[in-house]
Amino acid sequence: MEKKRVYTFGNGQAEGRADMRDLLGGKGANLAEMNLIGVPVPPGFTITTEVCNEYYEIGQERFVAILKEDVEKAIKHVETLMNSKFGDVANPLLVSVRSGARASMPGMMDTILNLGLNDEVVEGLTRKTGNARFAWDSYRRFVQMYGDVVLGLKPTSKEDIDPFEAIIEEVKHVKGVKLDNELEVADLKELVVKFKDAIKKQTGKDFPTNAYEQLWGAICAVFNSWMNERAILYRKIEGIPTEWGTAVTVQAMVFGNMGETSATGVCFSRDAATGEDLFNGEYLINAQGEDVVAGIRTPQQITKTGSQRWAALAGVSEANRASKYPSMEEALPEIYKELDTLQTKLENHYKDMQDMEFTVQEGKLWFLQTRNGKRTGAAMVKIAMDMLRQGVINEKGALLRVEPGKLEELLHPVFDKDALKKSKVLTRGLPASPGAACGQIVFFADDAAKWHDDKKKVIMVRIETSPEDLAGMHAAEGILTARGGMTSHAAVVARGIGKCCVSGAGALNIDYKNKTVEIDGIVLKEGDYISLNGTTGEVYAGKVETKAAELSGDFAELMALADKYTRLEVRTNADTPHDAEVARRFGAVGIGLCRTEHMFFDGEKIKAMREMILAQDVEGRRKALAKILPYQKADFKGIYRAMEGCPVTVRLLDPPLHEFVPHDEKGQREMAEAMGVSLQYIKKRVNALREQNPMLGHRGSRLGNTYPEITAMQTRAILEAALELKKEGVTVYPEIMVPLTGILYEFTEQEKIIRREAAKLFTETGDSIDFKVGTMIEIPRAALTADRIATSAEFFSFGTNDLTQMTFGYSRDDIASFLPIYLEKKILKVDPFQILDQKGVGKLIRMATEGGRSVRPDLKCGICGEHGGEPSSVKFCHQVGLNYVSCSPFRVPIARLAAAQAAIEEG
Ligand code: ADP
Ligand code: MG
Ligand code: MG
């Protein structure tokens, strides 16, 4: 049978279903599904995502030939259901042409509405409806969208406004009106003429009059938009493969712009910002779909509660609100009731928060889209836990519902309440996406990205955002817009990517050309600091202090639930008592990596360390090490206290020595004086330490084996600290870890020194403590000979940073020169330093774990590289049977959740 390329829907029937989103895209699959469950949807058809790939393979001409018959048949189907005819003058069928990929990519691709109009059909439509304003409003919108999307009339630079908007502004100006809906039929006719002129002048193209020609142009344009810059960027950020392709849905138009009983809107079954179980959304009377999102007119709220909340924030009195900005619940109560019933129905059907689009045509409600709504991290957690309590999903379902990486948003600092009180509120907008953000003002997306690269924190300030601004929004700490509501582009995207956003702050007067924003008489320039409170909508002058987030309520419950199902333990990488405390609060059950070198860099300690390295002989080194010992001990005690009752893995000194010595003459002179030697001598020693390739040089266990005194001193510090705390009644379980082992004997030599020093200490103090001696596995040879190393080592910790580096032979410090090209050419799918390479590095981990346990069945194995906090890598660690993962404090909750998911997914 010929491959099925087109799936129709309408009138309560559909060839597709919700679970066919890979083929029909999310939008197409859900339009089909809504038909099947009795939600009113205008009829139409979806061209599959496979056809998108075909389109790119065979080119436009052959593509049209192949699809012609199917599309014409599907149009007939729509004509029958709508009782009208595509391209007909007397009784025209108008359609929209919409994009829709598997994963939702809001606003990234193109949509065209009101297709099928021309100079004659518009007259026919006028006669048929008796509504000239509506007919011409639809026509001017069509010419505008088609001119932009298909014929390519776009702004030429970032400071320029859209050429169509420029024409509209000009016509409004001449006429002396402010809003689009104040334009009359004659003005709309003038717009159509001017639009077409502009298109012809700048692109040389005539506007097509034939309906089918328009349709094919639009279908191809939607497929083309799969490869536009912003869609490519979005896919890159979200990790969506190019091969997925987009589907195209062609659907009969329903009109929200037919007068006062017509409207269009967007709604959410729950609050996407906070997760509150509150139906909410925005609508506009006498408007078409795009108007709500684009922030052209300020939309009104759907529910009365929402409307009152909005009014309080916007400083609008109740009387004013009720008369000028009534909610849909008040203005169109019948339709509101129906909408409310259907949104509940959809949420129950999909068992998740829904983000929906609808249009009311002369009192009749139609749904145009539903999807699982994007939400903030906080909303994600609350909705999952609420739905669990409401019995919609079970515990495992709730855990699987939460995206581990998105938890990070909840851990970010919040504004300090006292600091807020002292700060000056510049203005207020809508609390579009919660959080605290503080940074320097920039006005353009590319500037945001540039400044961000220069390590500056920026707030992107815009009149409104558009899909082109995505990269800038990612780079910014927060986003502030002058226009647009809670469902505007800025708000939806910010919530999706977890950025703080205040939208629709009407008091902002933004001047892109001069890069200034004026707020009630105060003028701020690019580079000035402001702070945004995305939770309240307040905008503050300057920097406002922040503090750590509270982690209680739903978050704590979710984490407790994770622990119930998880098998992997989650430890942390912490070098200071502070980090250890933070991680403990986040639920770490031990330290998997405590790096001791950072302790040496600090203040006075560096001098003693330098003395040790620069010493002429063993004696000199011992003397210097004696000075370091008390510092190390004090550091360990602090960390142990924070980790009472838990294992703490301390890694012996790892980095190359040359990193510690002074390379400037001033520092060298200082050391010469302190040690009573000549500057000449110091210079000679520093030179001697220089290495061609320090990463593969004199570091790790090679240090401990050439300077055993260091290992002895560190052992003493680690164990003496534990013994002293034991006296205070604080128990810890030290684990001494030898770094960079490649050969069994490298390890056993170190172990001998450690055990000897421990025995000495225990005799001296007449007390003892349990401890383990193990090693990092970060050299491929160690992984290959794990069954030998485990005869001595009591635990393995996979140092996947070095292990990745050495397995691939990529220097971590130099990868930037080729990684971007490798990713682009798909030689590498991802950066292996961020996401564990399961096939190669992972194979070594699996092998080493099995090898080690073959000789020591109770060998404890963990991972302590960056990967320990990356969800897919954590899941891999679970599958391999590691005992724990260890990651930086802020990733601990992420790892805990990922570990639970791994256990659940394993079944
Ligand atoms: P996006 O993916 O950018 O949201 P959509 O395809 O959903 O694009 O369409 C953009 C807007 O046009 C939405 O508000 C949608 O509801 C509206 N729309 C699309 N098709 C129709 C239609 N057939 N009738 C009325 N409105 C439509
Ligand atoms: Mg949409
Ligand atoms: Mg290492």
UniProtKB/TrEMBL annotation:
Residues 456-537 form the PEP-utilising enzyme mobile domain. Keywords: ATP-binding, Kinase, Magnesium, Metal-binding, Nucleotide-binding, Pyruvate, Transferase. Residues 22-63, 67-390 form the Pyruvate phosphate dikinase AMP/ATP-binding domain. Its cofactor is Mg(2+). Residues 552-902 form the PEP-utilising enzyme C-terminal domain. InterPro entries: ATP_grasp_subdomain_1, PEP-util_enz_mobile_dom, PEP_util_AS, PEP_util_C, PEP_util_CS, Phosphohistidine_dom_sf, PPDK_AMP/ATP-bd, Pyruvate_phosphate_dikinase. The keyword Plastid does not apply. The keyword Kinase applies. It holds the Pfam family PEP-utilizers. Its EC number is 2.7.9.1. One of its GO terms (molecular function) is ATP binding. It is an enzyme of class 2 (transferase). PANTHER family: PHOSPHOENOLPYRUVATE DIKINASE-RELATED, PYRUVATE, PHOSPHATE DIKINASE 1, CHLOROPLASTIC. Belongs to the PEP-utilizing enzyme family. This is pyruvate, phosphate dikinase. It comes from termite gut metagenome.
